[in-house]
Amino acid sequence: MLENFKWIGMMSVVTFYALFMDDIKILVLPKSFDIYLDVVTLFAMSLFLIELILGVIAVPKYFPHFYFWVDLLSLVSMLPDISFVMEGIEGGIGRAFDGVDIAKSSRASRVIKIIRIVRLIRLLRLVKLYK
User: Could you tell me the residue range of the domain that residue 115 belongs to?
Assistant: First the structure.
């Protein structure tokens, strides 16, 4: 199943969604769409989890391998894309920013860049599977 062309194609679409939809949501979509995108993100996360579990079961030496950790980190990195998780991390909506909050957001932006690099590694893995 993991090497099926249809599965790989679907997971490629889901990977592109995971990479770019949060930015599109922030740039274009109103706040009222967050709940719908949260549902789609949770569905995408469930597909990544299924792929991870099937990989551990079916692929020899997948568990200690580098790609297992990349896939797991990619899955965990999607948690902040869910609006109610992010609101819980930030401590609620409508807080005023002070100097500490700005410093924290600067560190968070660096972490987000690292997370995107990990997600891009996952995308490169999918390209490798196409070949």
Answer: 5-130
